[in-house]
Task: structure prediction
Amino acid sequence: MPEHPEDAMTDAAVAPRPHVATRRHHAARTHATSRPPRRTACRTVPRARLVVLVPAHDEEAALPTVLRAVRDQTYRPAHVVVVADRCTDGTAAVARAHGAHVLTTRDNADRKAGALNQSLAVLVDAPPDYVMVLDADTVIGPRFVETALSRLDADPRLGAASGIFLGPGAHGWLQRCQANEYTRYAAKIGSTGRVSVVTGTASVFRYAALRDVACARGSALPGRAGDVYDRGAITEDSELTLALRTRGWRLVAPPACVCRTELMPSTVALHRQRVRWYTGMLDNLRAYGLTRVTAGYHLQQLMLTVGTLTLWVLLALTVGAALLGTLAWQPFWLAVGAVFVVERLVTVWEGGSTARWISLLVLPELVYDLVLQRAYLHAWSYHLRGRSPQWGHLTVAHDRPCVGTAATGAARGEEE
Result:
């Protein structure tokens, strides 16, 4: 009999059940993209302790770098599973070539949430202590796993260790502005210690916390009983964050848990991504209502809405005054503006000289903010009409019965 249940799934259908930087650092990253450095001191993390799930849809180009980064961890996971979801390319073959197991979803109509629910259902009979969810286009830092496990081991009420995503290798003003946004978010986490969302790009979860969420679905939490991920949520990571917080689990984002994720190459792709993010959060907050956990998130959305409308009105008044010849520069408001410029400069300082210059120029980031605010207003239109934005796929050139008793569809595991 196989040691683990997923090892017995070859050609068999299993129904899922509910359930910054110096030159040295820059050189190291550049080398890592071509050939991973040899690490003489590393510890293997057994399957009983950690399982890494990599949901992937046509990711054969990105997977090699992602899986090499997992292999080069100071604490190297022994069990990595690429969840091939409706793939039409060589994703499965590439995964096997890099030493990963492959789990192929079946009849999945629920995108990433459905793929993860199917793969988590396979773990029910022999659950690990922790589960890492890693996007197939995200490269984690070398101490990610070691740091996450250390923090989770130290605090039994800690439900997840979230990654902190950065955007190195940016090209053009749009990607550089995205990188600046991510750098500021990392700085905010570092200064406040608050994790707004457990990122779906790379995070490590306590299995008991995921089981707790699955057991509460359909009663204390939105969603279908037994599902870890709410299949109806547009943004499964922010919804799971609300679920974990509602169940009383603590969340953390250690500074060493850094990861590199893809940056949107065009304003069209960025708009599509952010409309989905914003709409997803608005929908999630409507599903959870106003509670002690969600109050801060509701306030954040209120401030975003007020700030967006204020900026657009201010710009309209400024343009109107300029056209009428009544625009006058006031020293007081110039001083206030200077304070904001300094604040934006300080918060991207770790991003390097280019990030600082982009911030000092003001105009590029002002235009970028308008792009994001347009997406936010568009998201409100979807939310108010009860509609969901379309998904887009960015092609990269390069207790037990509760978890796993209600997901529809089936998964087929193929391991070599």
Remarks:
- The radius of gyration is 22 Å.
- The CA atoms of residues 113 and 229 lie 5 Å apart.
- The chain has two domains: 5-161+194-256+409-414, 297-385.
